[in-house]
Amino acid sequence: MSESLFARAEAVIPGGVNSPVRAFRGVGGTPRFMAKGEGPRVTDEDGRTYIDYVMSWGPLILGHSHPDVVAAAIDATRTGSSYGAPTRGEVELAEEIVARIPGVDQVRCVSSGTEATMSAIRVGRGFTGRDKIIKFAGHYHGHGDALLVEAGSGVATLGLPNSPGVTAGATGDTIVVPWNDRDAVTAAFEAHGDDIALIICEPVAANMGVVPAADGYHRFLRDITRDHGALLLVDEVMTGFRLARGGATELLGLEPDLIAFGKVVGGGFPLAAFGGRREIMSQLAPVGPVYQAGTLSGNPVAVAAGLTQLRLLDADAYARLDALADRLIDGLAEAFSDAGVPACIQRVGNLFGLFFTDTAVTDYEGARAADHDRYGRFFHGMLAEGHYLPPSGYEAMFVSTAHTEDDIDATVAAAARVAATLAE
Ligand SMILES: *Cc1c(COP(=O)(O)O)cnc(C)c1O
């Protein structure tokens, strides 16, 4: 079925998919068309069931079709799916986010992570009256024009340097520097200090595999932006509400001026948000002059699902996610070492990624140097065994609270069998 659906899809959807990594180009083969998800498992159109480590790329932190999240969405839909007028749920969601995230006074909802980073940059530029931004090679912030330079995720998977259709004007104010490099950031501020509105970063780079910040690097970014009157925009679209109650901001003790949220915040529905200090957020219309809007922003169905999911994410949930990640990471590391396959598993909290290489990966160059052909073979070996991993060696793996110890052990056992075939 996946084969025939994909053939039909390719006729009417570019590449057969609505987001590039889904097409399996990074690993080869035909993408599985999913028909059903329940807890930690997905079932494809051919009736094959897999233990899922993609989890919609992060949003489904409680597993597929969590009964409370489903019920909240159904209830909200019954009473009215969209008004174009404010609703109680939006207030409650904003209050929940403000209560969880240190330093966030106000938030505004949007519909995707792309919109969140794009809007946060606009308000940051409006607030500082400056044009230039610094981003890191291999970090992914959605597909907004200004950010589509040396981006991670699908851009990395497909090996695209930069995207045609993005004008030089759109990226002319984007300065790209290597992640974990202090000198390059310092040099950018020396050359353009008074023109730099902000630095945008993932707190843990997780769209080129998982590449944590070096010791002290976040402190360095905070200090250099402050010294130059620039802002620090932390893109927590992947890490927010995943790494801890208060995301990476809480876990790593960050002090961002602006934060972008997405993925987990929407409970599997199209919802994202951005927030920050009141003096910055009050630049937004209708209070201030920076325009930003959306017909479906703060959609009641998405808000109900997202809020329900957030309220279930307590300290126990994060402890469970971390313990499951520990078990999986330890098991995989042992499987590769027993098979004599050089592998490097990098993590922060429950977020982790796998590189087939024998050295630690600290930047995009290192991520590209890993053995991505071997990742493709590992991926297909695991898929055949019933374990659905990210179809690209540039992506993180995701556990949910619905995964059990038995699920993890089954995946580790399969990995040991597949690892043995990778050695040759
Ligand atoms: C997924 C992601 C985005 C883009 O979010 P979309 O909802 O896909 O537009 C932005 N930033 C980071 C860090 C992400 O992981």
From TrEMBL:
User: Which Gene3D superfamilies does the annotation name?
Assistant: Aspartate Aminotransferase, domain 1, Type I PLP-dependent aspartate aminotransferase-like (Major domain)
Stored InterPro entries: 4pyrrol_synth_GluAld_NH2Trfase (IPR004639), Aminotrans_3 (IPR005814), Aminotrans_3_PPA_site (IPR049704), PyrdxlP-dep_Trfase (IPR015424), PyrdxlP-dep_Trfase_major (IPR015421), PyrdxlP-dep_Trfase_small (IPR015422)
Where in or outside the cell it occurs: the entry states: Cytoplasm
E.C. no: 5.4.3.8
Q: What does the record list as GO biological process? A: protoporphyrinogen IX biosynthetic process
Q: Which residues carry this modification: N6-(pyridoxal phosphate)lysine?
A: K263
Single GO term (MF): transaminase activity
Enumerate the catalysed reactions. (S)-4-amino-5-oxopentanoate = 5-aminolevulinate
Q: What class of enzyme is it?
A: isomerase
Cofactor section: pyridoxal 5'-phosphate
| Pathway(s) this gene product operates in, as recorded in its UniProt entry | Porphyrin-containing compound metabolism; protoporphyrin-IX biosynthesis; 5-aminolevulinate from L-glutamyl-tRNA(Glu): step 2/2
Q: State the family named in the UniProt similarity comment for this chain.
A: Belongs to the class-III pyridoxal-phosphate-dependent aminotransferase family. HemL subfamily.
Official protein name in the record: Glutamate-1-semialdehyde 2,1-aminomutase
Gene encoding this polypeptide? Answer: hemL
